[in-house]
Amino acid sequence: MEEQNKKILLVEDDPNFGTVLRDYLMMNDYDVVHAKNGMEGFEKFKKDDYDLCILDVMMPYKDGFTLAKEIREKNTDVPIVFLTAKAMKEDVLKGYKVGADDYLNKPFDSEVLLMKIKAIIQRKATETIADSKQFEFEIGRFHLNSKLRFLRFDGGEPVKLSPKENELLRMLALHENDLMPRELALTKIWRDDNYFTSRSMDVYIAKLRKYLKPDEKVEILNIHGEGFRLVVNS
Amino acid sequence: MEEQNKKILLVEDDPNFGTVLRDYLMMNDYDVVHAKNGMEGFEKFKKDDYDLCILDVMMPYKDGFTLAKEIREKNTDVPIVFLTAKAMKEDVLKGYKVGADDYLNKPFDSEVLLMKIKAIIQRKATETIADSKQFEFEIGRFHLNSKLRFLRFDGGEPVKLSPKENELLRMLALHENDLMPRELALTKIWRDDNYFTSRSMDVYIAKLRKYLKPDEKVEILNIHGEGFRLVVNS
DNA sequence: TTATCATTTAACCTTACGTTAACAAAAATG
DNA sequence: CATTTTTGTTAACGTAAGGTTAAATGATAA
User: Fold this and answer.
1) To which H or E segment does residue B228 belong?
2) Beta carbons of A223 and B125 less than 8 Å apart
3) Minimum-distance CB partner of A93 among B102, B112, B126
4) Count of structural domains, chain B
């Protein structure tokens, strides 16, 4: 079994810096796809699966944060790292909110960069162990397509789900009949764990219960203080 | 049920900086134990479980890296973050090698610090999935599922248990037919041992007896002054 | 910009939990 | 046997978590 090189999407508009960085990464056995702006970056992202995205924050047309958000909508798991010209506090905070895994200040030391990249990719690798990407579920008489974000009852008209509805239901389905801890959903989907995100989640549970009403055998039970449980009664 | 604060071990020899940082973290709902040097840090580490260690790199007697290595020998999982006076490349690299999760440059922005701490602790939280505890028990004709907190008689409808009911019954089941000392339940479940918690426990014993009534072969006996005994008569 | 949709925040209500108090019963003490 | 200590049991109370709906905010597309 040969070891597959890790694939990195690099989005950086500065041609000099971008090329140097790309070459350096390639020299270190990463497969690098280099996009020159946000649009291009998103196009390339959609076309392939990456192990890491490195996004410049300052870019014309579409800045790194906007791009990050688009990427996050498609994929909740890819590690994202931001490049900032200097450590601007607002940037850093904004980055973490969008789900950044780290950020790097330009100019940075190349060895440090490599180390960080390695650490981040490895981290994800261990997390994603049994997290087999599953996107379709049978939930009683419902069919959930988590990739296209719809839920269909029997053979009827599919209902469109919002991103949050979709991810929450998917997370419940992944733990069918078992406990899905509150904390897990909050940290994975909301990327934060506080009173308000928790209440927000409750609102979404209510929405899902409404969607699932047609099949009285399917219910979302609460385990007080712990989380929720999607059960399908036989 | 009260939310447990996350516990942080802070090892920092500079009294001013250390105190300020400690207070700031405590203001933000972390439980902080502050050690003034590496030795003390290791002692404190051995005495308790922490969610995060923040280690100053430059310390007399025992530097942060050495301490980190000792900590890693005892515990492979605690997140470790280093404090460095300035971003010295060697330090950073060395830190990552020892298994650092991140490093912070002094002086740093307090909000950024909080954000990072939050992110790191969260990361670990999701990694720690199932610690192979025993969650299921057969008690006479009952089945106890301690993870989902329910108790089922024969094949009937499961009864939901509250956290305390659940833990207490689980502890009894772990000592089936044997003495479960009062003190054990009080210290492990109530985390306190006084007149009132003791009475509270008695209330829960009464509740459990009620739940267990359907099977007359199952009973909770009292051993005066000692504790309780869950017996299953044949 | 307006219109539309997703998400968060607020409000209000219900349920769940745990503690405490009160009183009764049992066991130990001397 | 009288008295003290421990346990059994029920009910009331205060607090926290969850259910639900609606309004406010934010983001996106026309």
Assistant:
1) strand B227-232
2) no
3) B112
4) 2
- CA pair distance B125, A157, nearest whole angstrom: 39
Q: Are residues B141 and B204 in the same domain?
A: yes
- Both A45 and A67 in one domain: the answer is yes
Give yes or no: residues A32 and A122 share one domain: yes
If asked whether residues A32 and A121 sit together in one domain, one would say: yes
Domain that holds residue A107: 6-127
Closest CA to B96 of A124, A221, A65, A111: A111
pLDDT recorded at residue B127: 56
B95 in a domain, yes or no?
yes
A184 touches chain B (CB under 8 A): yes
Look at B89 and A111 and tell me if their CB atoms are within 8 Å: yes
- B120 and B153 assigned to the same domain: no
Query: Which residues 1-20 in chain B have a CB closer than 7 A to strand D?
Result: 1-3
Q: Give domain status of residue B1, yes or no.
A: no
Enumerate the β-bridge partners of residue A104. A83
pLDDT above 90: residue B159? yes
**Cβ contact (<8 Å) for A183 and B93?**
no
Q: Model confidence over B10-51: pLDDT tens digits?
A: 999 888 888 888 888 887 878 899 999 999 999 999 888 888
| CA distances, B204 to each of A6, A16, B144, B168, B190 (Å) | 55, 70, 16, 8, 12
Q: For residue B105, is pLDDT > 60? A: no
Look at residue A224 in the predicted model and tell me its pLDDT: 97
Integer Cα distance of B189 and B207 in angstroms? 16
Has this prediction a pTM greater than 0.85? Answer: no
Q: Could you tell me the two tokens for B149?
A: 């907190």
CATH number at residue B218: 1.10.10.10
- Pick out residues 69-88 of chain B having their CB under 7 A from any atom of nucleic acid strand C: none
Average pLDDT over residues B160-174: 97
Last residue of a domain, one of B74, B106, B127: B127
Higher pLDDT, A84 or A169: A169
The pLDDT of residue B97 is above 80: no
The single-letter code of the amino acid at A129 is: I
Residue A199 belongs to some domain of the structure: yes
